[in-house]
Structure formats: structure tokens, C-alpha cells
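User: I'll paste a sequence; please echo it back and then give the predicted structure.

Assistant: Echoing your sequence first, then the prediction.
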Amino acid sequence: MPDDEHSDEHDNERDEKRGTAYDDGRDGPRRAASPGVFLAYAPADADRAAALDGRLRADGARTALDESRDHSDGLPAEPVLQELGACDLFLLLWSEDAADDPHVQEQCQYAASFGKPCLVWPLDTTAPPPGQGQVEQLPPGSDDQEAVAAVHRLLGTRPADPQSGDGSGRGAETVGAVESGHWRIESDAQHGESLEVELTPSADAASSHDSVEGGLLTGTHQRAGLQGRVTGRWWFSRTEGRLDLQLESSFGLRPVRELRHLQLLGGDDRSLTAQDLHGIADPRHYRLTLERPGG
């Protein structure tokens, strides 16, 4: 875990291993216009986190979650550090499982080292965590609506106008769809990014919902001047107009694992636009081009 005495050592170690520096969010060149909230939670509380995440986004906030829980070299993944550094508020879903989760504890340590205010939402009667810096705790028994209200109060923001949409950017009707084939996916990430991937159907990706299809993906991933092989899985929900990508990209000494949720905004079956549902440090919009349909 990081501490004040060794934080620089951890930073230097990550820079040496990955060859990049992360932005602590204080002086970054590009920040989301909406308030950014990082949600920390244990896997057992994932449903509660997902419900809160949806409410926050519907109310105009940008959110980040560490769904991949990638910790293969003893340090949080680079994208997680970037999101922690860029967030305006660290929201901790606190429970017995979270108290026993080293992953959650480490995120708390890093958020405190970045000087981030913390809102604790107790999900059970577990004793609250020791306070570090600016910490506020919701009363026991609070629901996700009260948690969202506390976020806006702490950040001095107002909920989004309900008539402006649901926070996802999705229109009333989903336009276009993602299916198997060779796709080029380009994002407006700060340092440039693109994926050239083959999406193939797979029986083990079948869903109980007829509107969801998916399978395996392979190809190349270019980001910030680096190129590596990418493998993973994909799922597309026709009813939600959402493409979920589980990516494992090899850029250097270790693979980078990510989960991305792309909400379609418009287009047709060959050229689509989308936005990432999550992201604070570098929120992305995408263009998806079907270069060759699947067989």
C-alpha cells in the first residue's frame, strides 16, 4: 500500500515499468466538464455500485470504477491511477466485504494521498474506516438517492435537467448495431487511440436475453504511440444500444486489462458513433467502422 513516505518511490517505479507518467488531475490539460466521482467497492457490492453509478450518470456526473481489478505487478493499473488522480470525489461503498478487501483499502490510500475528499456510504453495520483527510459519512441505512444528493451537496453541483436525457447520451431510439466482423474503433483519447479487431461469435458468450450477442475479439491496439496485440471478449445489447468490451492489451512488460462500456449515439450498421459511459481523466468518444462483415 502507498504511504506518504514512499509515494514518490511508487510513482517512479510505475514510470520506469510503463514508460509513462500519470496525471494527478490537479493541473491536467483536459478535465471532464461534469463532476467526476470514483466509486470504490468490493465485488460482493457490485450491484449496489452499479445502481449508484447509473443514478450519478443520469444526474450529470462522470464516473469511474475499477471493474478489472488488475493488480498483477503490485500496483494499481495505470488507468485506475489516472482516474483516482482526476476525480473530484472518492465515494467509498463501505461494508464487511470492503473492509476485508485489500484492493479497496489501497484505493482509499491512493485517493487520500491525492488529497481527494471522501464520501463513505455504509451498506451495513461494519465499523467505519479510519478517516484520512476530508471524510464525510452518510447515516446508516441511507439509500442510493441520498448518496447522490450528498455528492451534489459536497461538490456544489446540481442534478442534470431530467429533460436533457438519461445521462448516457443515448437517444430515444437506438440507431445501428454491432455484429461480428472486422471493426476499426477510433477514440478521441488525449494521446490518440485505435483498435483494429475481429469480432467473432462464440457459443459461451450466449445470453438468456435474445437481444444480447457476443463472442471473442482479437487484433491490435494503438495508444499514445504504442502498439500491441489485444484479445478479449465483446457483448452487444440491442435493446440498450451498448457495446461492452473486455480488453487485454500487451504494450510492454505486462498486459493492460480493461472493461469498457460504449453507448451508441447514432449512425448505421457500418459507421457508428459512441461514447464511453465511464471516464474522468480522459472521457472518450468513439467512431466504429465495420470494414468487413463477418462470415
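The longest helix spans residues 46-58. The mean pLDDT is 82.
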